[in-house]
């Protein structure tokens, strides 16, 4: 399962979501701009207050790192 913590205006978030769509991968988006609880959740998951944070079956990737994403999907 892919979960992405993002905002609608973050360039790296937009790239990551386009990449997922290009690959045909389903994902769940949590827009951290919408609720304080979501901002707290992303901090608990990653220790970061930046986006995107991508959680792939428990593997947390901070930022849009295509190679790390593909490696996490292959496992």
Summarize the structure.
The chain has 75 residues and is of the alpha+beta class. It contains 3 helices and 4 strands.
Can you offer a commentary on this structure?
Residues 3-61 form the Glutaredoxin domain. One of its GO terms (molecular function) is electron transfer activity. It holds the Pfam family Glutaredoxin. This is NrdH-redoxin. InterPro entries: GlrX_YruB, Glutaredoxin, Glutaredoxin_subgr, Grx-like_ET, Thioredoxin-like_sf. The protein is globular. By secondary structure, the protein is an alpha+beta fold. It is 44% helix and 23% strand. The protein has a domain at 32-75. The longest helix is centred in the first third of the chain and has 13 residues, at 11-23. It has a four-stranded mixed β-sheet, with helices on both faces. The mean pLDDT is 94. It has three helices and four strands. Strand 3 (53-56) and strand 4 form a beta hairpin.
């Amino acid at each position: 399962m892919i979960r992405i913590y993002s905002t609608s205006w973050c360039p790296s978030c937009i790239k990551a979501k386009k990449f997922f769509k290009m690959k045909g991968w389903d994902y769940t988006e949590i827009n951290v701009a919408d609720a304080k609880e979501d901002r707290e959740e992303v901090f608990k998951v990653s220790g970061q207050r930046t986006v995107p944070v991508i959680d792939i079956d428990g593997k947390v990737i901070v930022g849009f790192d295509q190679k790390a994403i593909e490696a996490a999907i292959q496992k």
